[in-house]
């Protein structure tokens, strides 16, 4: 029982970070109907950015300060990807944007493998741990979860309380009407894509503070993001956080009862069941 | 800047969707401070003309001038920020956003922000229902309330020219009367407007000048009173 609680707590902490990554994916889909298949490599780039900015062989900056830089880089990178690979296929059939973002995925992985190799890296970083009764929480994971919650809250405030955030929701809701009201929809879409990749890269940076990684590591988290996004409802950022918690909790508990290698099986069975039973997601879905 | 001249000139515009040409060499002028109506049967290109003027469609030929400068090729949002505002057919509200947020988005451009407070008071005074429902999601309101919001959102944009596509379509008669009353008031305040209406009788009664569009071409134009007296128009559109 104690082990169960400890595993669950640990899983839930990870769940917040998974949820943050998934929010990036679901935001982009919700706003422009594009499924960003470069999501995984962008998470991996977040990890490497953390490695180079904070690692012992890098600049050695405090990881949590490094996140600010990673966020800015992630935003700018996303805006570039939007103008290079997304904008021109926005009104084309879905297959075009899938292929286009998949090409970005392959380019990042190709160039990344050539330059960074696939040797696992890790950040040697620890801020101790906290014990609450039977539960011991690793400091890095606790802080990562808190940062994920903070970023999610900031995203919510941005979308619902600021002018550019509301413009994103307006463009997402009715692009032509937004243009008619004087909202520059192209810039707004580019900003949304940038924010989506920013969330993914922050999540990558956070994961790098406690797991080892290669340039290929993003794939796993991309798949998790897909499961989470379907759980929470495609296009629904709040649902993504909830989906993240469910997936994280599941990942925490499952190994107590069965070999770890079964975890992905359970995740994808859940994925398929949700798609069959409630394709709009647990929260009803954004559309 | 011309006073009393044409604010908006549409010169020999041809337009359509891809291979399908809808408009053939259409010309139209909006006089400053006047309410102009554009009437015609369904499918003759009224909405296409609106979409072309406002920049959602690119004309294959012709030119659109606004305050004397050529705005044919600039994007829709840039036209809106110059004061050329369309209330589109089918309302096209931000249905997932509240009434208040829709109004805020109406006031997105710089020229609209300057007058945000006055405009907000003005539209709430014109449409008290919107004030009551300011925190309701706009998509959950009735058709009439949505049309009020569409007009109010357009007014929030501080238009120099307000174009309204199908003001009365699908609305109950008493609401239609209310909305036409608002139009009359806006006209008295000196706003330049272009009204597309399938209710030809009411459109001709409220407007100063009218264009009749048929098969993508201007069939007839003139002061609304005279157009209303025209035998062909009476037969074709007024059922008299």
**Whole-number mean pLDDT of chain B:** 93
**What fraction of the residues of chain B are assigned to beta strands by DSSP?**
25-35%
Gyration radius over CA of chain A: 19 Å
How much β-strand is present in the residues of chain A?
under 5%
Query: What is the CATH architecture term of chain A?
Result: Orthogonal Bundle
Succession of helices and strands of chain B: EEEHEEHEHHHHHEHEHEEHH
Query: Given the structure, what is the number of helices of chain B?
Result: 11
What class would the helix/strand composition of chain A place it in? mainly alpha
Question: In a few lines, what is going on in this structure?
Answer:
Chain A has helices at 2-32, 39-54, 63-86, 94-116, 139-161, 163-173, 175-180, 185-208, 218-232, 237-257, 263-277, and strands at 129-132, 135-138.
Can you tell me about this structure?
The complex is a heterodimer of chains A (287) and B (240). Chain A has 287 residues and is mainly α. Chain A has eleven helices and two strands; from the N terminus they run H-H-H-H-E-E-H-H-H-H-H-H-H. In chain A, helix 2 packs antiparallel against helix 3. The termini of chain A are far apart. In chain B, the strands form two sheets. In chain B, strands 6-7-8-3-9-10 form a six-stranded mixed sheet, sandwiched between helices. The model of chain B has no long low-confidence stretch (mean pLDDT 93). At the A-B interface, helix 6 and helix 7 of A face helix 2 and helix 3 of B.
Throw out a few tags for this protein:
heterodimer, A: 287 residues, mainly alpha, ABC transporter involved in vitamin B12 uptake, BtuC, two-stranded antiparallel ribbon, 3% strand, globular, B: 240 residues, alpha/beta, 6-stranded mixed beta sheet, 4-stranded antiparallel beta sheet, 11 helices, 40% helix
